[in-house]
Design brief:
Rossmann fold, 6-stranded antiparallel sheet, 26% helix, elongated
Length: 270
């Protein structure tokens, strides 16, 4: 890749040594592609791309065939290299963990159509629509259909079933009140990490309780709908029992019932 470039031999050797060490292919440099594994071929292809001095790098799932542990290591090394060199790259991946770890901004596509182009934080906290909201984040965002009723100085969001949320009108930002005007039904979104288990006025029936070593995932039935909650401690809840939970209206996302487009992120004014 560097033979046509105007580089001194020592500079070429240094550049090759740097990228081959980065992707850990030094032991196979003298072997033909047909004699190495698919993962090794993929790392060699990545090295050939990175060794060039280019204005833009297009990397199309360059680590898709690697085992998870090596993939995580190379992801960190690649991120450091991009920053150190000030490299601009377009990185294509179906792995949202990889996208969040590497990207400054992420383009979320569905069926060839751009859904949102934003930072990883904004994709999670301010999704443009239901597709982005449920695609970004693990576990995905909980979604509930809800009716809206206004009375006195409060808004009531009634989820189909027996769950309702009352929010003082004065606590809702004016822009959000304007966006809600004229709507009688919306879809509410709540991230699993924002559900607080063990206390609160709401109740859910536990369907599964999984301890994953550093966090608990609880799937529960709420108003006839599935809700997933994530806690960073063990939750002593047995399957089939009722567990109390709560959440803040600030953590509720509101989406248009028909289009799925975002109406607001958080009901209470911050």
């Amino acid at each position: 890749a560097l033979k046509g470039a105007r580089m001194h031999a020592e500079d070429r050797e240094r550049a090759v040594a740097e990228v081959t060490a980065l992707v850990e292919i030094e032991p196979i440099l003298d072997r033909y592609p047909s004699s190495i594994s698919g993962g090794q071929q993929q790392r060699a292809s990545l090295a050939r791309a990175l060794v060039r001095n280019a204005d833009l790098y297009l990397l199309d799932e360059p680590m898709g065939q690697l085992e998870p542990q090596l993939r995580a290591v190379l992801r960190g090394r690649l991120k450091n290299l991009l920053i150190a060199r000030g490299m601009t790259s377009i990185f294509v991946t179906h792995d949202q963990t990889e996208a969040n770890a590497l990207a400054d901004r992420i383009a979320v596509m569905e069926g060839g159509v751009l859904q949102q182009f934003a930072s990883p934080a904004d994709l999670k906290d301010k999704p443009a629509n239901l597709f982005v909201a449920t695609f970004i984040g693990e576990p995905p965002m909980n979604i509930f259909d809800a009716g809206i009723a206004t009375g006195g100085d409060q808004y009531r969001f009634a989820v189909d079933g027996d769950l309702s949320v009352d929010v003082a009108a004065g606590g809702i930002a004016p822009a959000v009140r304007d966006a809600l005007r004229g709507r009688d039904r919306v879809r509410l979104g709540l991230r699993p990490h924002k559900v607080r288990l063990g206390s609160g006025a709401f109740r859910a029936r536990v369907l599964s309780n999984q301890w994953l070593g550093d966090q608990t995932h609880v799937a529960a039935e709420v108003a006839g709908r599935l809700m997933v909650a994530v806690a960073h401690e063990r939750i002593p809840a047995r399957v089939g029992t009722q567990i109390p939970f709560t959440f803040s209206a600030r953590d509720l996302h509101v989406f248009d019932m028909a289009t799925g487009e975002a109406v607001s992120h958080g009901l209470e004014a911050g």
